[in-house]
Each structure stands twice: as structure tokens, then as C-alpha cells.
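Lab notebook page, bench 4
Experiment: in silico fold of construct C2
Operator: M.H.
Input chain length: 394 residues
Purpose: comparison with the prior construct
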Amino acid sequence: MSSVRILISAGEASGEMYGALLIEALRRLAGGGTRATLKQHLEFFGVGGGRMRAAGCDTVVDSKDLAVVGISEILSHLPKIWGLFHKLIAEADKRKPDLAIVIDSPAFNWRVARQMRKRGIAVVYYVCPQFWAWRQGRVRLLRKYVDKALVIFPFEEKFYRDRGVDAAFVGHPLADLPRPEIDRSAYANLHHLDAAKPWITLMPGSRVKEVRMNLPVILESAAKLGPAYEFLLPVAPTLDRRFLPALIGDNSIQLVPEALPALAQSRAGIIASGTATVEAAMMGTPFVMVYRVSPLTYRVGRPRVKIPHFAMVNLIAGEEVVPELVQHDFTAEKVVVRLNEIISDGRARNKMIAGLAGVKARLHGPIQDERHPVDRAAEAILSLLGAGGMPKTG
């Protein structure tokens, strides 16, 4: 059995989760042999967290050390990030990977892609940067340094192909997520919740700066909603939960370890823009999307945004499925008003649930292709192997 060494770089909680799913799929398909490849032994190293380590990746750099957001925040972390980048490249020079897979986190990963390309190593970009939203000129980076782009949103394939990138829509990794098996009563007992009350999931983001910007107003919203509800706050694996009690204070909030069971059992959610909005759509949980960044980041970034919606589910649907409260519109009063519209049974709630179901169907990919989206991505990567090993690029 031949051996292939793969560098895989995933920053942030969502990218780390996708990386773990992809590693598992690659191991399963390569180990059993598929129509795309001969049997191969795969070794993984690179940037990731606990989930990727559990999947068998040797994490040279921990993804939580790269989890920063916004222009001003990145500037203050540059020396540390630069040092981690050089640590990864030095390890790549020592291990000499056959293939590099970079996942999201463009500020870090396009530089990884460039260094791998310089070394003649094929590069796959999985979960491509959202250059269609802003800084569209940066597509040239993918065209120059990436051999194959595997995109997870249906509109991305045409956007990137029209700009000279070899892109393929493989479906969203979360599109086929089953509902967690734990029932409401067992979940309530596990986390000391009142099963008789409606539950609301609070998701302020996966990075410390995001949480600090979003959580105070989310907590104010929860306080206004009052004790008739239970509030659940899933803690992203990239976060050090030790800083949360100071932010939460006396608010009655239950910290839980995973988002999906909380979302599946909740009546509604208050959710920061990002992958969590897709997770909510997969669970069919109505929610209000919120987001706030620093004033500097917003002033610099807002004029460059080229899209009609901020929430990913709205972009995929081509219309407003969920309300968006961003920056100055993100107030506790507005959150409560919009949340009350969808908590009770009625037309607004039913319309949102139907819209989220439509988004889920679009994210799966072609109806006639029954493969899981992550398996499609894995097979696309393994198809580069062929019978003769991983191709090198000049």
C-alpha cells in the first residue's frame, strides 16, 4: 500500500470541523479503495484543533491561536501569526508533503498555498474564501496558487470559474447532518434545563473578539425576554471558556459543549453571522442573525461589501429568509421584536422554517448525486492521485 503525506491547514472552529470531516472521509475512501484511487495510506499534519487531532492529524499549529477577527485585531496579532506561519512552513520543508489542502482562513492560507506552490506541491482549496462578497480582485490569488478549488455554496462555482479558477461545487459539509439522537428530556437532565420552558440558543461567534463584540447585546436581549425561557450558549472549541463567566455575569445562561443538540432542541436562536447560521438551517431552527465588529473594521470594510445580504442562508436563498441585525441595527430591542415574530406558531415562523428547508436542499448539491458532500470533496482530492501518485506543479 502506497503512502501519501498531506499538509492540511484549517483555522477557526468551522474550518477545523470541516477539516476533521474531510480527514475522516479521505481515510475511509482511500483505505477501502474507490473508483477515484488505489488503496493508499494517508498521513496528515498541519493546522487544526482537537477535532482534527481526534481524526488523526498531527497539528503543528493549533487553530485557536489563529482565531482573530477584524482589521485592527489582526494587526495586533501579526507577530504571533507570522511566527506560526513560519513554523508550519519549516515543518512542511522537513516532511515534504505530496499535497496541501487549505480550508477557509484566507489571510493565513493563501500564503500557505503560495509557499506550497513554490515548492511544486499541488494545492487544493476547500471552503474557498468569500471573495465574491468583497475584495473580488483577490481571486487572482486562487488562480495563481491553487490547483483545485472545492466550493460549498452553489453560486460559487460559476463565480470562480468565470474568473479562471478550476472550481467545483461539492456541497456543504453540513448539508446532510442528522439531527442529534439525544431527546429533549435526556438533554434537559444532562444540562439541568427546564424541559417545560422554550429554549433559545445563543451563538455569539467562535472567536474571542467576536464574542466580546456580540455577546453583551445578546445577553441584554435574553434579559428582556425574561425567565420564561431557558438560554443555551454552545462554547466553540476554539474558545477558552474561562473568560465567559465575566461576560455572562449574573445572567442565567447554560453553557453547553456542542451547538447541534442545542439548536435541534431550541425553539429559536440568536446567532452571529457565520457557519452557525448554516448549522441552524440544517437543524431547521428559526433564528435572528446578528453581528458587530469594531468601528474601524466596519468603516473600512462596509463600502467594499458587494453582496445584498449578510446572512449566508439569505444569500443562498436569494431573498431574506432570516432577519439581519448588523452593527448599529443590532440592539436588544430589535432582537426581541424580531425574535418574538418567530417564536410563536404562525405564518412568520412557518415561512422561515420552509425557507431554511429550501436552503438545506440547495446546499446538498445535485439531487441525483446521493454521495455526502464531504465524500464528494474527498473523492475530488483522491482523484488527483491516480495510479501514479500525486502530481507536482511547477
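Observations: Residues 33-38, 69-73, 387-394 have pLDDT under 50 and may be disordered. The CA atoms of residues 221 and 333 lie 7 Å apart.
Next step: discuss at group meeting.
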